[in-house]
């Protein structure tokens, strides 16, 4: 390739892009949010502690990941969290989720928005995610095809446990009005309040700049629409339910919209392949495991065609799992840069040891 191509990377002045700055803004939970967060974190530690004591931790990766994602969602908005593990698992048999199908359904509902899971059949993020009775996650189409294939023994592709179609569980159906989970009268979450404050300050400094808000959780994007509109901002939303035609329409509309328009975008639909250079402010609602995916999302704004300096803001809850995820992300990034390579599977998911360190740091 060196004989026919010339490589220009962004950190070199030859590319000629405007500057990019990254900063972290921390905020405090309200008293009620802190009490709820501390209780859920303590319950999660107890559940994981039971797994460690019973020496079954490695066979319960999904349970541990579910606990992490519940805490991450709680840092955003308590409305995202369905329940904690302890509320469904009996105290005398806390490690056996197979006897509790409702737990498995709730787990897949909480996990399917996350970036941390891949289907081990197709190695892509699961489509129509399905969890098995042995707590492994696949695309529904992949696992059903695997089990119905005549030449394949009916076992889990991961652990080889005997498996049949009745042993598969999907998320509960959406409510009758999935577009508006936000209409209940309630207090604005602290993270959303912090975001609104930053957006208003940015509007004062530069009245013509537009903003993109990225989140891992599609439900969070819907929940933010009403408080942002109440604060005087127009909103557009790109999430997993947006088809390609509508996606192109939204991006075009965002490009011609006024400066008070905020684009709410999910990581899954907005990480690659689109141009968001109409914006110059980026807000990351959560720290992501995969720093490469985070960089891809930012690069939808900081790329060719961008004429303004780009400001990226991470919103981090103080004394929470978000601070520890950010520290872990920085350690991994430093280790990768020092070694000049990435560890196997690091781009796809966090290891069970990484997850446990978030609780017992």
- Describe the sheet with the most strands: 6 strands, parallel
Order of helix and strand elements from N to C terminus: EHHHEEHEHEHEHEHEHEHH
Strand elements, count: 9
Named at the architecture level, the CATH assignment of the largest domain is 3-Layer(aba) Sandwich
Strand content: 5-15%
Silhouette:
globular
What does this structure look like?
With 361 residues, the chain is α/β, with parallel strands linked by helices. The chain has two domains: 13-29 and 187-319, Rossmann fold, CATH 3.40.50; 31-178, Herpes Virus-1 (2-Layer Sandwich), CATH 3.30.40.10. The protein contains eleven helices and nine strands. The protein has helices at residues 31-53, 61-76, 101-111, 140-148, 190-205, 218-230, 244-256, 267-270, 291-298, 321-339, 352-357, and strands spanning 20-27, 129-132, 137-139, 168-170, 211-215, 234-238, 261-266, 281-284, 310-317. The strands form two sheets. Strands 1-9-8-5-7-6 form a six-stranded parallel beta sheet, sandwiched between helices. Strands 3-2-4 form a three-stranded antiparallel beta sheet. Strand 2 and strand 3 form a beta hairpin. Helix 1 (31-53) packs antiparallel against helix 2 and helix 2 crosses helix 3. It starts with 19 loop residues before the first strand and ends with a helix. Mean pLDDT is 81; it is low at 90-95, 175-184 and 342-348.
